[in-house]
Amino acid sequence: MFSLKTAWRFLRSGKGQTILILAGIAIGISVQVFIGLLIQGLQTTLIDTTIGSNSQVTVGTEENYGEIEDWENIVHRINQNVDGIRFISPTLTLPSFISIDDETESTLFRGFDLERGSEIYKFDQNLVEGSLPEEKGEVIVGIGMRDNLGLILGDSLNLFNFQGQSGDVTVVGFVDFKITMLNDSWIISNLPTAQEVFDRNDTVTAIEIQVERVFDADLIGEEIDLLFGGNYVVTNWKEENQELLSGLRGQDISSIMIQVFVVIAVVLGIASVLAISVIQRSKQIGILKAMGVNDGMARNIFLYQGLILGLLGGILGVSLGLTITYLFTLFATNPDGSPVVAISMNYQFVILSFVIAVVASTSAALIPARRSSRLEPIEVIRNG
Fold this sequence. Notes:
Blueprint: H1 2-13, H2 15-52, E1 57-60, H3 71-81, E2 85-100, E3 103-112, H4 114-121, H5 123-126, E4 127-130, E5 138-142, H6 143-149, E6 156-160, E7 166-175, H7 180-185, E8 186-190, H8 191-197, E9 206-211, H9 217-227, E10 233-236, H10 237-240, H11 242-280, H12 282-290, H13 295-331, H14 347-364, H15 366-373, H16 377-383
Parallel strand pairs: 3-8, 5-7
Antiparallel strand pairs: 1-9, 1-10, 2-3, 2-6, 2-9, 4-7, 5-8, 6-7
Helix pairs in contact: 1-13, 2-11, 2-13, 2-14, 11-14, 11-15, 12-16, 13-14, 13-15
């Protein structure tokens, strides 16, 4: 208790040094919090943009667009035996062409159980005009195709393929997938319509899955593959997005390096200032030792200083970092007012940053603490 009170008294008497150290810790930790939350938010935004509204695990066949007949049983078995599944949707995907007013364009005709498919692709949320298909023969198309062909609601499209199969469908809505390639090429219908137009009976070409934890997609894919004994081709987003994964790893490494160097700078700054403080207060420490303060108590004075500075600096740094992060989301916005990077609060990371501040500050006080414990009171008092 004596060491703690003395440490607090030393900090109060040297207000200039104390404020300087607290400012250094606060700035360092605020940078760590802001950079960490920013990179985590950037990764979340990037993942959500690229795979958040797409299939993350896909069960298909070796043949492109090959038929899966017993798909209802497959969906049931996956739901019953595999944990970590968020959404699952059977799909029928068929390359085709459309003909309208003597114009022909290639397209990808996709049939969904629209209730399940909307859980993955957000058809209902991305619909910009019209309604989702409810009856056979109704489709929605991307806004890119709408603009390219000058489509309006109620237009009739003739769909056909190389096998000579064809059928007419009616446009009942337009959707914006936020991805140009999809907006330009996708035509969406309910499953019965797609099966009827190209005579696919009660079959699908794939079963698309979203998982609860996106980075577990490869593990869940392996589990599904084992469940069906390798009879189907199971792919996952990580296999198909190696460049994206490399970029995410690079961001993680750069974030860790920045945070490490920030902590090193904070530690060196605290250690140097407290080392000077030992020299400045050597006479006082000598007097205290002459009065009966032992080496351990003298050492603890500076350790407590480091602890107090870490606690106060950590609180200030975390508060400043969260404030900067909040202001960033207010001022760095897209034309529609949404944040450029959607930052979500990671409480574990914030708490870890605070703990790092306390540990770093206390550790930085070890060197001056050891130096103070070695001071000989007679020598210090004699040399003034």
